[in-house]
Amino acid sequence: MFSNKFVVEGKLAVITGGSQGLGFALAKKLVSKGANVVIISRTESKLTKCVAELKKRVEKENQFVDYIAADLSKYAECEKVREYFVAKQLYPDHLICCA
């Protein structure tokens, strides 16, 4: 009934806490629906594994998945996240907070 109400194909979703639990489950679902996804978490080793798994689900040629290792409880780390998006000229359509 609601499956087509939330169109994410081609949109950019940023997910905090995206390396495990609900955040990772949402990332998998969004990627399978055609969204571009950037996951944020503190542990880079977990993030690299998660992104590798998410990239296997990418179906569109111009679709991308990436990660940012950052502790969002620290201002300097938040600034690092901002700089990532500015440098790549990315503008998130959705922010999902699971951290």
UniProtKB/TrEMBL annotation:
<protein>
    <submittedName>
        <fullName>Uncharacterized protein</fullName>
    </submittedName>
</protein>
<dbReference type="InterPro" id="IPR036291">
    <property type="entry name" value="NAD(P)-bd_dom_sf"/>
</dbReference>
<dbReference type="GO" id="GO:0019290">
    <property type="term" value="P:siderophore biosynthetic process"/>
</dbReference>
<dbReference type="GO" id="GO:0005789">
    <property type="term" value="C:endoplasmic reticulum membrane"/>
</dbReference>
<dbReference type="GO" id="GO:0008667">
    <property type="term" value="F:2,3-dihydro-2,3-dihydroxybenzoate dehydrogenase activity"/>
</dbReference>
<dbReference type="GO" id="GO:0047560">
    <property type="term" value="F:3-dehydrosphinganine reductase activity"/>
</dbReference>
<dbReference type="GO" id="GO:0030148">
    <property type="term" value="P:sphingolipid biosynthetic process"/>
</dbReference>
<dbReference type="Pfam" id="PF00106">
    <property type="entry name" value="adh_short"/>
</dbReference>
<dbReference type="InterPro" id="IPR002347">
    <property type="entry name" value="SDR_fam"/>
</dbReference>
<dbReference type="GO" id="GO:0006666">
    <property type="term" value="P:3-keto-sphinganine metabolic process"/>
</dbReference>
<dbReference type="InterPro" id="IPR003560">
    <property type="entry name" value="DHB_DH"/>
</dbReference>
